[in-house]
Prior knowledge:
The complex is a heterodimer.
Chain A: H1 11-22, H2 46-60, H3 75-89
Chain B: E1 4-13, E2 16-17, H1 19-28, E3 33-35, E4 48-50, H2 71-87, E5 99-104, H3 110-122, H4 132-135, H5 140-149, E6 155-158, H6 164-177, E7 182-189, H7 194-201, E8 231-239, H8 240-245, E9 252-261, H9 273-283, E10 293-295, H10 302-316, E11 322-324, H11 337-351, E12 353-354, E13 369-370, E14 376-377, E15 382-389, E16 393-400
Helix pairs in contact in B: 2-5, 6-11, 9-10
Amino acid sequence: MTTHEHAEFTLNDLKRILREAAGEQEGTGLAGDIRAFTFEQLGYDSLARLEAGGRIERTYAVALDEDCLNDTTTLGELLAAVNRRITEAHPARP
Amino acid sequence: MTAAVVTGVAVAAPNGLGTDAYWRATRAGTGGIRPIRKFDTSRYPVTLAGEVPDFRPEDHLPSRLLPQTDHMTRLALVAADQALADAGVDPGARDPFSMGVVTASSSGGFEFGERELRNLWSKGGQYVSAYQSFAWFYAVNTGQISIRNGMRGPCGVVVSDQAGGLDALAQARRLIRGGTRLVVSGGVDGSICSWGLVAQMAGGRLSTATDPDRAYLPFDAAAAGHVPGEGGALLVLEDADSARDRGARTYGEIAGYAATFDPKPGTGREPGLRRAIELALDDAGGTAADVDLVFADAAAVPELDRIEADALTAVFGPRGVPVTAPKTMTGRLLSGAAPLDVVTALLALADGVVPPTVNVTPLPGYGLDLVVGAPRPARLETVLVLARGHGGFNSALVVRRAGA
């Protein structure tokens, strides 16, 4: 698998990883701007979050702590946390 | 005592996915043993298996379940759905604690586990699926069926190789007698993957034949091991009174059961199978004369075939009862084999026909009336199903026409 060390982590990237890692809940799905939804609201239990988190870590070469992936975390909060870590790990060259 | 009756069945077998397709093929003697398609067997001594055809899990299961399930668990989840539908039961409309799940297993989700072990050793620990934590596990089918259908009563898994398929149904019957209203039970099993095949090869009982019609020949002079297979059957068991109250159709009753364990090898003592048969008949409140048909374990290892034939002739007399082994059409499905035999027995009861043993020319010296070649019409009331597990497990289960 290739890593995207300098890339931005977008909502569509997160949706793709969630689908691969854990599928999507019947009914709600993952369509539209769902950044305000929590993992719990989208039907992702702790193992689903662990699996998705692992895929994010190895794809984007970042380390996430458990706080990033609580059941009450929103997708938007996770996106911000991951992008912050990408930036920290690979600061823009002057 | 409360009778445990079967009100729903579902089959996933190498010669038919779904009860109707399986029973049509089985009555006609159409087998499903073929060269393995799932992986390249060119460097393996075993190249044949019974693989379930035409299964597209995404047609049946929500996407949330796909990344977390082994192939045999997907088959089991779909079979559970179909068995409940066949029984006319909506689990969501019942008290969750009145329903249980007891399945048999032999090895868990080996195909899933193989993939994750490959990830571990070729890429590293961070590439191992979080779902490996349970997807490979023996109890996973029970757990997933329980979760999907909201069945929060007594649940469990039995692991005793092929005998486990009967042991699970017996445990389900115990739960029904103890007051659980409904239990989904049986087994859907299989590990047709390189790791699973090698693990089974280590047991020394797999056939290395390459002709599907000459590969699994129990009670035949050419018997030389069995073909592995995947699949099995799930059944819905209910207590007879509540089944009657809701006007359910009943396939038959789980009327008797016993399990024994073989004596230590080398002691010269008689193997436990005969005693299992006699104890199961006692448990059913019947005698050998009541049995109209026997589904044999049919190991296709000469020594084991001899033990089974001796047990049957000891109890029923030489050629004293029709015997069949439809598993010659599917291969041995690990813990799924015996539940499939039980469902086949119930379908045979309903249709008054004995499905045949295929490809076998019975050795006369075994003294068995083996039903070979073509189905045999018969009036059936009571059927005995036998299953043995590697290491000394013997189980016998009696099914009887409901109300007989």
